[in-house]
Structure formats: C-alpha cells, structure tokens
Automatic annotation (TrEMBL):
The gene is cobQ. Pfam families: CbiA (PF01656), GATase_3 (PF07685). The active site is at 327 (nucleophile), 426. Belongs to the CobB/CobQ family. CobQ subfamily. This is Probable cobyric acid synthase. It comes from Methanoculleus caldifontis. Pathway: Cofactor biosynthesis; adenosylcobalamin biosynthesis. Residues 250-432 form the CobB/CobQ-like glutamine amidotransferase domain. Residues 4-226 form the CobQ/CobB/MinD/ParA nucleotide binding domain. Catalyzes amidations at positions B, D, E, and G on adenosylcobyrinic A,C-diamide. NH(2) groups are provided by glutamine, and one molecule of ATP is hydrogenolyzed for each amidation.
C-alpha cells in the first residue's frame, strides 16, 4: 500500500512529514521509498549514479534506509530567472524552458513520472508520495502533475498537511477540501495540523471543530521542532534569520539572487552565527565570508558587481578574512568567466572578483553531476586540517586552475596563504572535519573557546539519529495506528509481506 501527502500551501511541512513517515515505516521493518513527481528547488543532490534530484527526496530516501535514485524525483525544475527553468528529467538535464512553454510538456512528463512511480512500487511495494505547493490551485488543475492529476492516476489515500503557525488553519483545511475536485476529495483520509507552538492540548477543541466542519479525521497535531535536517528550498532561508545562533564566531554567506544548495552551511549554522547577507550588504565584522553555489553564475556575478560586493570582498581580503567559494562562488572568485551563451543571453567575457587566479569557461550545455571523495591538499591554516572529505559536484562550466595550488586533490584552487580558496564540492562543510578546521581557526583568531563538532553531528545529509528523532517526534503526536492500517492487508499482515 502507498499514500500521498498533500499540503494546504507551500512550506507547511510536507517534506518532513514524508521523511517522518518513511523513517517510521523503516523502523517497523516495512520497505518504503519516497516519491515526488515534480519538484522545484535549487537545493539538489547527486545520487551514486550521477543523477540529480531534489535534496528533500534524498533526505527522505535516507530516512527510509534506501539509496536515493532518479525515480524518486523524476522531474526537477531549477529556476534560472526571467521565468525560465532548467528541467532535469530522470536525473539529467533535459532543456531550459520558459514556464508558459513548460505546460505544453506536462502530458509527456506525467507519463514519465508515472513510469518512475511504477518502477519504485515494483521494487519497494510501499511508496510515500509528496505533492508540491498547495493542493487546491484550481487554475492549475488541468496541468498539475504533482498533485491533482497524479492523485487521479494513483487513487491512493491522501493525508492533508496544514501549517497552524501561519494562522488561519481552519480556512486552510476547510477551503482546500472544498476546492478539491469531487473525485479527489473522498481520497482525503486524514489531516495533520503541523508546526504547533505550545501545549497541543490547547487545540483539542480545534481538532473537534475541524472534524465537525470537514468530516475528515485529524490524525494529529505536531509541535514545531528544530531537527537538524537539510532545508528543501529557498523558502527556508526566511526562517534562518529568526533562529540565527548567538555565537561569537560570525560567518557571512552571500545571499545570491539564485542561491543554490545553501544546505551546504547548515552544520556551520549549528555552531556559529551564520548570516545570509544580500548583495550590497556590509561584510564588515564577519570572521569568514562564503560565496555559495548559484543556478546562474554570470547573472549573479553581475548583480554582486553592481551592488558593490566586489569592493566588500577586497576590503575583507585586506583584513585577512578567509573567503571561500563553493561551485558558482568559486567561479566568481576567479579573474574571468567566458560564456558562450550558456549562462547568459549575451556571449562574452565577464570579469570576476579576481581573488583567485583562475578562469572559467562555459562552452556547452553540459553538466557535471558526480559524488566525490577528496583529500584537502591546499596550504594555509584551514585546509590542511580537513583531511579526507566527501561531497558532490553539480555544475556547468570548467575552471582552469593556473599556477595556484589545488585546494583538494583534483579540485579547486587556493591562494598561497590558503585564506582564499574555492571548490566545486557541495557538502564540504557538512563534513565535521571540514567544519572543525574552519571553526577552529576562526575561533582562535577571535580569541574565543572552540568546541569541536562531533563526528556524528554531520555527514552529507545528517546523522541517522536525526531521522530517528524526527520519527519519534512525529509518532508521539500522530495516530500511527490509523496510518499503519493503510499498510496492512485484510488479514492483518503487512501489505507486501
């Protein structure tokens, strides 16, 4: 048996609900896999075979105790700006399309998604499906391949997740159910009220009222919780400012207009104050500056140059502040970027920030997607302490290292003093050894105590105990007996057993 998790809106907690369900089933010995037909996110992950999928589906796969695969997220949309997105189909770049043209492809893409679902179901038997955005987008019903059209084909029980933190939970649930198509509404088997702050018992009358209004059982009221798992998409950046750590070491991550894979820094966020600084924002007073990945290096570079970030970086370099570039950020730190019309509409040479003597060229519509394990080989006070690290590459373009020493074996570049370095490796600072090497130096420079990151506190997608913590939190507040009934056959045995 399988089920679908839909939401009343974006960012209500669908992804974490799916991850929690996957872990809860895994802990009961039930084989399960996640599935999201279409995801839009710049936070992505590379599977063992080099396929690119949304990072949320990778998180859910690890929660389920299985290896991530392209079938778990057959369609990934990566916005590039100007109403254009790169379409990643079954883990590989398909084409760049404007949104109005994308809708002409939905029939074909839905067929691909359904075939991917069938392959997963044949392999794992039980699938937890995640929808996208809000389920009741009535103007999109004819092309909604992540919610309504998918549910119509699969005919599975639906759990509807609502976010009480944003207010109006009664309108969220009642309105969504009222607007669902008549053939989909009966499939909704339960509601989960998510992100409750305070004593959930105070909402007991609210549960009764919701059930009376809708005729749908409320399966649980789940309290808000901080569990260290990667963020799904850019909507999560707004949450970070509200929970920034009050710690002595301060790190600035430049918030690029098309920032990607900012999950790279979430382990650092738990041990330092990490601020996402917009273009033009002051970088004075920070102990370290990081230029993250981007979906469009040239466009974001021009935005930063126009905002004066280049001068901020030059002044920080003069102060001896470490500056790190990841992927597109690494490309920007170089002296030039040559684009043959791949990144921008106008081919040409674009001046980088010139802090690394490297040059990048975009000459074809080719993307590198690969998992990597490398040893830090660069000079200076930070890189030598990292040792062997693992991560993944997702990038277009090739960078000529020149005469500079490599930051890692076969990748990146560093200045002779090692205080400016770049790498194509996403996930670098999710390695505890890399986080410790950076934080130890920054703490020493600031003259504050340093408490090392525990070896079990990181990893590419978080330690296994984070998934168990998520499952325990979920199970404590949700009627798991009702949910498990959907995974049992008429004789009481596990479905598929």
């Amino acid at each position: 048996m399988s089920l679908i998790v839909l939401g009343t809106a974006s960012h209500v907690g669908k992804s974490m609900t799916v991850a929690a369900l996957c872990r809860a089933l895994y802990r009961r010995g039930i084989p399960v896999a996640p599935f999201k037909s279409q995801n839009m996110s710049l936070n992505s992950y590379v599977t063992a075979d080099g396929s690119e999928i949304g990072i949320a589906q990778a998180v859910q796969a690890f929660a389920a105790g299985v290896e991530p695969s392209a079938d778990m997220n057959p369609i990934l949309l990566k916005p590039k700006g100007d109403q254009t997105s790169q379409v990643v189909l079954l883990g590989r770049p398909y084409k760049d399309v404007q949104i109005r043209d994308y809708y002409a492809e939905t029939d074909t893409l839905l067929s691909e998604a359904l075939r991917a679902f069938e392959r997963l179901q044949n392999r794992y038997a039980h699938i937890v499906v995640e929808g996208a955005g809000g389920a009741a987008e009535v103007n999109l019903y004819d092309r909604d391949i992540a919610n309504i059209r998918l549910a119509r084909h699969l005919r599975l029980p639906i759990i509807l997740v609502a976010d009480i933190e944003r207010g109006g939970v009664f309108a969220q649930v009642y309105g969504t159910l009222a607007l669902l198509p008549e053939d989909i509404r009966p499939l909704v088997a339960g509601v989960i009220v998510n992100k409750f702050r305070g004593d959930t018992g105070l909402f007991a009358s609210g549960v009764t009222k919701l059930e009376d209004l809708t005729g749908v059982p409320v399966l649980g009221v789940v309290p808000y919780a901080e569990i260290p798992l990667p963020s799904e998409d850019s909507l999560s950046i707004a949450d970070k400012g509200r929970r920034a750590a009050n710690r002595s070491v301060r790190i600035a991550v430049v918030r690029l207009p098309r920032i990607s894979n900012f999950t790279d820094f979430e382990l650092l966020e738990r041990h330092a104050t990490v601020d996402y600084v917009p273009p033009g924002g002051s970088l004075a007073g920070y102990d370290c500056i990081i230029l993250p990945g981007t979906k469009n290096t040239v466009a974001d570079l021009e935005a930063l140059q126009l905002a004066g970030t280049g001068e901020e970086l030059r002044l920080a370099r003069e102060r001896g502040v470490p500056i790190v570039g990841i992927c597109g950020g690494y490309q920007m730190l170089g002296r030039t970027i040559v684009d043959a019309g791949i990144e921008s509409d106008i081919p040409g040479d674009y001046a980088g920030f010139g802090l690394l003597d490297v040059a990048t060229a975009f000459t074809g519509y080719r993307k590198t997607t690969v998992q990597v394990r490398r040893r830090a080989t660069g000079p200076g006070p930070i890189l030598p302490g990292m040792g062997e690290v693992e991560g993944y590459e997702i990038h277009m373009g090739e960078t000529e290292q020149g005469e500079l020493p490599a930051a890692f074996s076969g990748d990146g570049a560093a200045t002779p003093d090692g205080l400016v370095f770049g790498t194509y490796m996403h996930g670098l600072f999710q390695n505890p050894s890399a986080a410790n090497a950076l934080l130890a130096y920054l703490s020493e420079r600031r003259g504050v105590p340093f408490e090392p990151v525990a070896a079990s506190g990181g990893g590419a997608l978080g330690a296994a105990d984070a998934y168990d913590e998520l499952a325990r939190h979920f199970e404590a507040h949700v009627d798991m007996d009702a949910i498990m009934a959907w995974f049992m056959d008429a004789t009481g045995r596990r479905a598929g057993a």
